[in-house]
Amino acid sequence: MIGYLGPSGTFSHMAAAGYAPNAPLKEFPTIYAVIMAVQAGLIDKGIVPIENSIEGSVNVTLDTLFFDVDLYITDEYILKIEENLIVKPGARREQIKKIISHPQPIGQCSKLLNHDFADVEIGYTNSTADAAKAVAASDGSIAMLGPKKCAELYDLELLIPNCGDELHNSTRFAVIERTQNLHVTASDKTSIAFTLNNTPGSLYQALELFKTYAINMIKIESRPVKKELGTYVFFIDIDGNIDNATIYFALDKLRGATLSFKFLGSYKKAQESRPDAIS
């Protein structure tokens, strides 16, 4: 069973259905709840958003994986995102007094909101599906931003289709499990996270290992440790699998140079999937 951020109609639901079309799915109210359900053994896998091409990393996913659980990223799924302005059937543009959605779609449609709806109130929901339910129950004065699937599921209409800031908008979802993925492919990546002493050159010395071992770093992201200002967790993705001896020894040396180190997983790189490919 695979857990996802619900209710039905969210991008996470679309990702779960696209990733494993024949698997039983279970919805959860938050990303945190999905990850903790995997940790508790209530579900076999969770699929959670980890990065958007416009808004960047999904912080709750990164923080939960580092601070709260001992789980692994075993796979990834990339979903092409198309945001739409969705209204109750028959509602007109001039009726809209409030636009609601999950914070990610709100951020991904900032140009539309600032240029065309600058005088309209903006509200936030736990998911796009929650926003769709609110629009369906409204008098037509509330609109939402989200996937076409929400309009289909909750009998709503697209007022402005594909209204995101960028036409190329994708979200990368991480598949989370309790055990590592031991399958090696020709196109893998490895994710790690670590903390360092707050001393001059500590990050440079850590990253220099990748140059020394000719390892390509795909991404680096920092998040606060939360205990004090100026201390951070560094999340890094690199090309290759930890099964490769060069990567294994490089990460082993890196582990020795850190305050805390977490191997988050080696897994196959994903190809982008279109939202209209989801049934």
Automatic annotation (TrEMBL):
<dbReference type="GO" id="GO:0004664">
    <property type="term" value="F:prephenate dehydratase activity"/>
</dbReference>
<dbReference type="GO" id="GO:0009094">
    <property type="term" value="P:L-phenylalanine biosynthetic process"/>
</dbReference>
<dbReference type="InterPro" id="IPR045865">
    <property type="entry name" value="ACT-like_dom_sf"/>
</dbReference>
<dbReference type="InterPro" id="IPR002912">
    <property type="entry name" value="ACT_dom"/>
</dbReference>
<protein>
    <recommendedName>
        <fullName>Prephenate dehydratase</fullName>
        <ecNumber>4.2.1.51</ecNumber>
    </recommendedName>
</protein>
<feature type="domain" description="Prephenate dehydratase">
    <location>
        <begin position="1"/>
        <end position="178"/>
    </location>
</feature>
<dbReference type="GO" id="GO:0005737">
    <property type="term" value="C:cytoplasm"/>
</dbReference>
<keyword id="KW-0028">Amino-acid biosynthesis</keyword>
<keyword id="KW-0584">Phenylalanine biosynthesis</keyword>
<comment type="pathway">
    <text>Amino-acid biosynthesis; L-phenylalanine biosynthesis; phenylpyruvate from prephenate: step 1/1.</text>
</comment>
<keyword id="KW-0456">Lyase</keyword>
<keyword id="KW-0057">Aromatic amino acid biosynthesis</keyword>
<dbReference type="Pfam" id="PF00800">
    <property type="entry name" value="PDT"/>
</dbReference>
<dbReference type="InterPro" id="IPR001086">
    <property type="entry name" value="Preph_deHydtase"/>
</dbReference>
<feature type="domain" description="ACT">
    <location>
        <begin position="191"/>
        <end position="266"/>
    </location>
</feature>
